[in-house]
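LOG
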Amino acid sequence: MSFKPTGVMPALVTPFTDDAKRIDEGRLRKLVNYVIAKGATGVVPCGTTGEFQNLSFEERKSVVEIVIDEVKERVPVIAGTGCSSTDLTIEMTRHAKEAGAQAALIVTPYYHKPTNRGIYEHYRSVAEAVDIPIIPYNIPQVTGVTLPWQIVEDLVDIPNIVAVKDSSGELRGILAILEKTRPRLSVLCGHDEVVLPALAAGCSGAILASGNLIVDIWMQVYEAVNKGDLKRAQELQLKVQKISRIIAKSGSVGVKAGLNMMGVPVGPVRLPLSIGGELSYEEMEELRIDLEKIGKIERKVVTVEVVPGKPIQERFAAIGITPQTIKDFNLRFGEALAGEEPEVAHIDLMVGGKAGPVGEAFAKAKASPTPGHEPLVAILEPNLTVKPLTLIVPTVTIKSMRQASMIYGPAQTAVAKAVIDSVSDGFLPKDAADDLILIANVFVHPAAVDRRRVYINNYKAMRHSIRKAMEGRPNIDDLLENKERARHPFRYTP
């Protein structure tokens, strides 16, 4: 067959209604148009990112039909049709062909974990039963089944097997497939963290979960590699590497969270997937920050009134909940946790005006320190105190010089850097730096040993807690939505 997929093709999420009970056709159509407008060379519905395992067969068929109808032949549609059963895969693949898909993406049969012989016969049977270009799909970290290059080498002799998608992230396997099958087979990268090396090695393109969010950037990487401009491609890959890492770990949960932040509503994921699980709240904050950095979340002017009658305009990220005017600086509170034990960081933050209760608490803490919890004013270096004035109060009683060095060394440095970066980024108003007071209760585990991780985690936690304080997060709706499924990380959970 002549169909050879190239370029960058988003593995589309499946938009749901807000209760996740039904497919939201309107949102799905808007998503299709969004990624095509951003440069997608194809679209892939009902793959892993599309939560195909959480869809009924009728829902899967409906998604494929809607996408094909909305695409209107502008780009190829590669429909995910894989099932654990060969017969069901044939049924879904026939439907994809009849609906007008250009190709079928078929994941390796899973759950029963077939042998290599079974895998080969599965693909051979589907290919013989349905005359449509077929793309075997290797994602062993999800299926528990590896599609080895030896089987791919055999499959290439079947006429309508035209490509293979490898989402393993294992470059050795990709190189072996390229060695044995090029140019007869298009090899497609499916792992967001290794796009550049895979393309540079000879892959024809990529099918990516993060393509929903940043297909335009991935197309720039693809074009740079084709032009031989590896320096430019490297710069772009590194620019989105953290986003790629978060998405590779969280899949559709992270993609949907990112799209919703960007103002491309796609609704929630379906259980058992969940925010706070596959995507931690720390990772969600990091995703937001990096989407802002690359301009995917637009900034808007927000008025800040620290002092009544003295409005200050700052540029905040438009995340959907940021109020047009941020006021009530009598007391604002933020909280954040970052990292894992023993270097886990936890910040309880109070923000307020000098003349209010936060200013009073600051003066009292400095004048009458509690033994073992002696507060310290945050500094970038000696004689360079940060503004807004920030007080660090150890949460854990300090009983040794090693503990003290962790709190007053890397943790203190991290808090200070997070404060001044928040001013630089506009999340603490520069013009009110002399009017505000911050008090940060800082938790550093007594068993912490890695000073760099202590620094990184406290920096993240402080940045996140500042954002939450200024934006008033979480709001009551967030709490009501999460009250039943919330799980404290230090709570015993069977």
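LOG (cont.) second protein
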Amino acid sequence: MTDLSVLETVLVVILLLCVLVGTLPVINTGLQFLALPLHAFRNHYGKAAPYHPNVAVIIPAWNEGAVIGPAIERLLQLEYPAERLRVFVVDDASTDDTPAIVGAKAQSHPGRVVHLRREKGGEGKAHTLNHGLDVVLADSWTESVLIMDADVIFARDSLRKLTRHLADEKVGAVTAYIAEGSRDRNYLTRFIAIEYVIGQLSARRVQNVGGAIACLAGGAQLHSRANLEAIGGRIPTGTLAEDTMTTFEGQLKGRRMVFEPHAVVLAEEPRTIDSLWKQRLRWARGNVQLTSIYRKLWFRPSREHNLGSFGFGLAWFTILLLPAFMLLAAAGMLALLVLHSDIAEFVFRFMWISAACIYLFSMLYSVQLDPRTGRHSWREAIMFPGLGALILMAIALFPWAFESLLTVIGLGLTDQSRFMWAVIFYLWGPISMLGIWLARAVEPLPGGRFFAGLLLYICGYGSLLCAITVDSYIKEWRRADASWIKTEKIGRVDS
């Protein structure tokens, strides 16, 4: 490296800091998987015990005719005392055969299945749940409440694995592992399956260790009666992330939330980029809203809860600001390229070699956590960062191989071409997000699903989530319509 002037040195240091901040998501992932083994020692199993409280199950249902029947039947078949389990289906003014199906189940299982009808629907999941809570909490019989989605299927032993944690009075709620369970998997559902292993089986185990849970899964969350009463006996409204807000409120009241990785719940997930985009946009906008609502919480440690800890805040913001971090790192790298190309090359190699190591470690660890998902989604585990990112990892590890390949095909590197390739490499993050926007645009066209899938494999599933997050920024900034949009389910989960 050539000597730098004082001004150049200052600029380089600033740009290096930008790149470092931009790589925080990668650093956080590495820290997450390094902390994961601690769950073997820091968990809640020491305070768990066989416990079978009276459980009122609340299922919000709007036009769920394709899935509600099997969901109810599977609940009634759970390994749980029959006299301690009641199912309340809150029919949100359905216009399909949901009322007839639920009514038939109620007649077949009197006292165990209850049909609650709302004549005014469409107000959102939280309002529907609150209608059910008004009923079940008015009955002293209710000792705990299981909130679930109409399309999920519980493993037979899942409920008793959840309730055992409520034996500890300090636990306010327990959440299960939502696994992708579609019979007819495609490339997108297999990517989602890997995402859930990383985002739930690994991340929420680490959250158990840290003592702060980000979100009780909306499709499988078990609350103690005391926890619900502490937060006012209602699910918070006014946000698109009612499950996350409920999770926060319970912890702010001093109660512990627990993730139970061995309570498995199978769910049907979207099969198209557009449908996934709409679902995750709702989630992302909700998280943006909550970040503002709880702005006085972040990075402010408290004796009452761990939501204000540095570790929890780092994990939260590295997900929320992932696209911004990617853009910051790309801008820093591009500026370094112009200012001092050899420093930029060194940083590029260091970044992508580190990313390669963390990626290999995390994926190998992840597929061991859920061997079932590892078997049917191993290709998506390999391609999770995208072909483009994998190529950059290979170039960082073996730069001579890339130069040799270009020479063989007659594209030997010149100073101009070297600069051009460097620009493409350094801007790959933003480029990959644009590729995902293109994938969504071409998907509805004839033959579009093939090209959309190809672009996803090239750009990476992480870039898909980043693109959706960018859209959430835009929607919230524009104050776009925030009505709750239901994710269509057609009953593709084995019962």
